[in-house]
Specification:
By secondary structure, the chain is mainly α. Helices cover about 75% and strands about 5% of the residues. The chain has a 3-stranded antiparallel beta sheet with strand order 1-2-3, with helices on one face. It is elongated, with a radius of gyration of 22 Å.
Amino acid sequence: MTDTTNTNASDTTTGNQPSTLKSYVDSAAGAVQSAIGAVTGRPADQNEAERTKARASAENADSHDVAKVGPFAASSSGAAAVDDRDRREGSWNQTVGSAKEAVGGLVGSQSLKQQGARQNEEGKKQEAQGQLSDYGSGIADRARGAVGNAASALAGDRDEQARYQEMHDRGKTQQRSAELDIQKQAGT
């Protein structure tokens, strides 16, 4: 899990949650600084460009960090999310199905082995359905949170702004949690 005492400039604009968008902007700024340094030949410009690009790269990586323990996930912002019910039940069905397959193989029961294989496959489908649900609702909450946060900021309503920031952060945690599980299953 990422250290939330990070002092990146993005921390003041997005709470403690590192921003993927900000990392892209910083990366572009680093590229411009690098070009200026190449034209002017000033090592200070080139060094600053490298520092900016390094910060952007670190922030991008931080913005994707999520810690998972079982069905629970937390991000560097402190936002927490719980896996969709289908993800939890699908994972359980895969475990039980695999156990049935193993026991069926050990005792020579072809029907128990086949039953386990079917339950395992059904569990995979169920978990994938839950992952897609979490991914989609996470993106939706991030978008609603970002828009609501901006509107609340324009209206000067700090309480609503904080509520929408929490919605955004929870959505991001939920989305990143689903992405993490999908990547693990894909082997990447």
